[in-house]
Specification:
By secondary structure, the protein is an alpha/beta fold. Helices cover 32% and strands 12% of the residues.
Amino acid sequence: MREVRPVLAGLVAGAVILPSWYAPARAATAPARAVAAHPRASTVPAPAVAAPVRAAAGLVRTVAGRGAAEVGEEGQECPAEAVCGRVRVPLDREYPAAGTTSVAFRLVYRRDRSRPAEGTVLPNPGGPGIAVIGRRDYAGKYRDLLETHDLLLVDPRGVGESDRLTCRAAGWPDLHASRARAVAAAAACGREIGPRRRYYTTAAIADDIDDVRARLGIDRLDLLGQSYGTHLMTVYAARHPRHVRSIVLSAAYPPGFDLLGRPSARAMRRAVRLLCHRSGGACDGGQVLDDLAVMAARLDGRPLRYGRDGVLDETALASTVYKLASGHAELFGRLPAALRAVVHGDIGPLRELAERVRPISGFSGGGAFSMPMFVTVSCNDNPVLWDRRASLDLRARQYAAALARLDPRDYRPFRPSAWIDGIADLGDLCIAWPGRRAEPRPRLGRLPDVPVLVLSGELDTGTPTEEGLLAARPYRHARLVEVPSAGHVAEQDGRAATCVISLETRFIRRGRLSGTDCLRRIPPVPVEAAAHPLT
């Protein structure tokens, strides 16, 4: 596949048009159309909520208080304008003897109750492993949409107010300390959970959501997925197509994504060039990539220490760049100057950036969501580069062989191993996952023919536009919007959020894309001028 050109054709007033050559070179069954404007007391027993939600006013209760994994509060009461509860679901719908687990929900009513709801929005912020109940950003950011639409929040099995999946053997920091610790932590967590781990998959989560929907008497859902949530929504849509009204996928990736991170590496180079192209001359993309190459080679032999336990090696540098572009736009613009400073002997600015983003292999940082669910769903669902039935030694040899076949040019200015090891859920994270029996792939039906909007951040290295296009292809009438100068999950970027949320709101309401002119007004990432400019 050719590398994406540094600046897309059709650069007009800050809006980018996706050209025909941008689509990956593989057969398409239903090509997505790129936009040419640019782009959680008591519980509610399951039988009690079997009636439609319009007659469920008596079900408002205080829900058991374990708190959401990310932003929920301990023992928080169910809001007066909502219905809260739990639905008990089978761990394995094809093997009832496996037992059950409970899934928590909160149905928040629209503000305008004088008329029937125009729809019910089901969001998921990703992970896997992020709790949904208790998040306040949906009600705040989507205020206009929730005037007329109900909001259904469902904590996935194993997370938040639902029965939690736990393991004490390892924690989130272990996934970021180093690649070796990440692999060991995932394996230790899998061993502790034991055979029960097989029941935590995206397909099971999707079926749980549909059980909640059915118990509440909701006919169809407007699906709003972000990051991993895009995969969850696609799996839900394929398994329960008759209950989908519309789909919005933000920061989307296809189920068979590249475990070796080549699209991410291409997106990284493109992000650097785009950053500089819009910097007003504050940096040159080619020079920044050259500086990264020099620094990567230097750190490969002489890693630097920072903070209490930070190690800035080539992998940590690659991870830093990856995180800056996707999730730290306000810091990404400081990278060119930090690299120029290193060239002149001042490591301070680059060390500060690493301290701020806490790259893998460089910092034992904390995390905000469920590590057990993250590794369990990832290791159950993600593609692998080895035979799951093989011994660990054979798996390792198979993985090494896959690495040996890589073209180093696909990862420049880093070595392939440095780039892959710098991204937690890529590469060999699950190579020591216990069990030698491959889980059957979930049965997926035909996707519904409904309005689908896919949004990709232009600077996103985690779920780049290249993968967004592949995620959109299975849908017959998908529209893809690339959001200028935005990273991972564009509606979380302060510069782009208002525009993107307005696009999503209108799309869910009307079933069509409109109002794309705001994309042209998204400002570029400010780039800090180097103290030691090019000579």
